[in-house]
């Protein structure tokens, strides 16, 4: 895997001075790479960890340090943008702003705590409910996934494209074990080969890369988990919806979706045909 391309040297980034959608991308990439340096200092170093309320999983001092850095870095550069992050209080006016940062400081905290590599920094900008710029950065894999609305999706300097798999029984799918419960499917759970990664954002990037044919989660899904990944998949030629087939809209008052299904177009249709939406 090639080393990440810097925002300053990458020819596909738009002018920093412009406020066109793509002009946010250099800022997002630089902020994500800075976040990676902060997270590396805590990785495998037994950071302090707490359990969130309502069984929402662990949060570490690394998550909080990265979140604080990103909030300061991004809102200093774009003080008129709204703020929505997993680890800090959202700006009270975010639904009234014309653009919003949607951030997961460390997506895949459990993998981070276990000393693994499959955690990421996920940062997106939304405008009018649509993601317009996105980065998912995996520091320990030297992998920078990026997308700008209408400009394609990239892993470092390589253009991305989803797979063209059409047969659901032959598919390689990223999903957690409860997804295979029979109640979720018409005619029983498909026979696809199931795989797992801790970070939802990384799962979506692997679909955009074509390494896997689909990812799905049938649990209520927070916007910060999938905002950046959703644009990366669609700009790679894929389709992303909730489990009822509705397109994802972002910066909702309650920032949550009814599950997420992401795949190449033909595979997405095959999955939607098998999902039980009347349970």
Automatic annotation (TrEMBL):
Names of required cofactors: Mg(2+)
GO molecular function: inositol monophosphate 1-phosphatase activity; metal ion binding
One Pfam family this sequence matches: Inositol_P
GO biological process terms held by the UniProt record: inositol metabolic process; phosphatidylinositol phosphate biosynthetic process; signal transduction
Domain of life: Bacteria
Protein name per the record: 3'(2'),5'-bisphosphate nucleotidase CysQ
Record-linked SUPFAM superfamilies: Carbohydrate phosphatase (SSF56655)
InterPro entries assigned to the protein according to its UniProt record, in alphabetical order: Inositol_monophosphatase-like, Inositol_monophosphatase_CS
Positions with a binding annotation for Mg(2+): 86, 104, 106-107, 225
UniProt keyword terms in alphabetical order: Magnesium, Metal-binding
Family: Belongs to the inositol monophosphatase superfamily.
